[in-house]
Structure formats: C-alpha cells, structure tokens
Amino acid sequence: MKILIILAHPEAKSFNSALFDTAIDTLKKNGHEVKTSDLYRGNFQPVSDERNFTRLKNETFFKQQYEELHAVEQNTFSIDVLSEQEKVEWCDIMIWQFPLYWFSVPAILKGWIDKVFAMGKFYDNGKIFDNGLSVGKKAMLSITTGGPKKNYIAEKYGDMNSILFPIHRGILEFLGFTVLDPHVIYAVERLTFDERKVVLNDWSEKLMTQLAELE
Ligand code: FAD
C-alpha cells in the first residue's frame, strides 16, 4: 500500500519523531511504499494566503476558495502546496503524527490542512463525505498527550473521541477519508524510558496488524 506520514513536531529527537521513524521503518520493512512530510525539518510555511498561488485571478480582493478553483483550472498552485497535494492524491493511507496542542493539531499542521485541501481538488459542491474526492482512502491520527488518560473523560477534559471529532468529521470524513481508530499515547513524558520502548514496539505491531487487515 502507499502510505503518507505527516510529522508535526519541532524537535527531531522528540518521542513524536521516534513514533514517526518507527512507522516509516515498520511500513518499509513490510513492503509498503512510504512518503513523508516532516513539516518542521522541511521548513513548511504554514500561513495560508496569496502565496499559495503563483498567480491570482483577482489581485484586488483575496478570496482563497475562488483562487483555489482558479488554480485547479490553471495549474497555479505554488510548488510547496502542489507537492503536498500530490502526496495526498498518491496515498492509500494517510497518518498524521503530532502532539496534542490545545486539544487540536499544532499550528504548522493546521496551516498544512488550510493550504493543501483546496476546493475543486479535494472537495467541491456536493463532493463531500460519502461523495468526497478522497473516498477509498484511509486516515489515522497518531497522537501524544501531556495529560493522563484518566483526565480524558466527559467530566474532566472530555473524552478523546469528542476532542478529535472536529478533525475526524470536519476534515477527514468531510473529504471522504475513512477514519481509522486513532493511536493515542497519553502522558508520554510520565512514562519511563523502558515503557516508551514498549510503546514504540506496540505501535509497530499495531501498524502491521491493522494494515494486514486492510489488505
Ligand atoms: P517528548 O518530550 O519529546 O518525549 C518524551 C520523552 O521521550 C523525552 O524524555 C524523550 O527524550 C523521550 N524519547 C524520545 N525518543 C525516544 C525513544 N526512541 N525511546 C524512548 N524514549 C524516547 N497536552 C494535552 O494533554 N492536551 C493539550 O491540549 C495540550 N496542549 C499543548 C499545547 C502546547 C502549545 C504544548 C507545547 C503542549 C501541549 N500539551 C498538551 C502537551 C503535549 O501534548 C505533550 O508535551 C506532548 O504530547 C509530548 O510528546 P513529545 O513528543 O513532545 O514528548
């Protein structure tokens, strides 16, 4: 299978980076094709504005979705946007690896979402959810948290499925992706080194099992 993994973490020696590297190794060893975007190391520029395009249809009033429709027709997406769009179009499965920031994705990944999923290319009038342009593709979030699992309940922070709903439903399913169960590692800083090694091993096994079931 063709798998795209996006990493959004500022530190190359972070645990998120270790989860990212583990996924790449595991998937390659099991014969899958892997493409990646390491957003920080790749200096991804996350601000979505007129720089998403090489030329604008309307130079006097910037309206992103109109410019996206124009860019699909005229092939005028900037190279950073286009190269990420091509990776999403290429993959069968997309994995996002990130630390939970403010119950959401880090800003660099939000910028990637805002820039990459252009109208006319990834969704359009009526081409959403079951008719979405990414129907047939799958997506999985792989997340770490600072907070412990016991706090992710309705009476405290809210359960993780509710927290992830805007991403799962408002972005991935909206585009047509089938959302796989998220991989969530709670309170990663509170684990011992050995416990973190077990987490990496379990992640590798989970990927192998899950992908074998999908093939
Ligand atoms: P790291 O600190 O990188 O890693 C933990 C430990 O693992 C480190 O000691 C590291 O050296 C070690 N390690 C690295 N590689 C390996 C390896 N191969 N084997 C073994 N050990 C290894 N948390 C919440 O719960 N909810 C929130 O809403 C939230 N919002 C946040 C907002 C912001 C802006 C920030 C900065 C943090 C927020 N957090 C939140 C906390 C954040 O989610 C956690 O700090 C993060 O998930 C921890 O993951 P990490 O990869 O950064 O850990």
UniProtKB/TrEMBL annotation:
<comment type="similarity">
    <text>Belongs to the NAD(P)H dehydrogenase (quinone) family.</text>
</comment>
<dbReference type="GO" id="GO:0003955">
    <property type="term" value="F:NAD(P)H dehydrogenase (quinone) activity"/>
</dbReference>
<dbReference type="InterPro" id="IPR051545">
    <property type="entry name" value="NAD(P)H_dehydrogenase_qn"/>
</dbReference>
<dbReference type="GO" id="GO:0005829">
    <property type="term" value="C:cytosol"/>
</dbReference>
<dbReference type="InterPro" id="IPR029039">
    <property type="entry name" value="Flavoprotein-like_sf"/>
</dbReference>
<dbReference type="InterPro" id="IPR003680">
    <property type="entry name" value="Flavodoxin_fold"/>
</dbReference>
<dbReference type="Pfam" id="PF02525">
    <property type="entry name" value="Flavodoxin_2"/>
</dbReference>
<feature type="domain" description="Flavodoxin-like fold">
    <location>
        <begin position="1"/>
        <end position="203"/>
    </location>
</feature>
<protein>
    <submittedName>
        <fullName>NAD(P)H dehydrogenase (Quinone)</fullName>
        <ecNumber>1.6.5.2</ecNumber>
    </submittedName>
</protein>
<keyword id="KW-0560">Oxidoreductase</keyword>
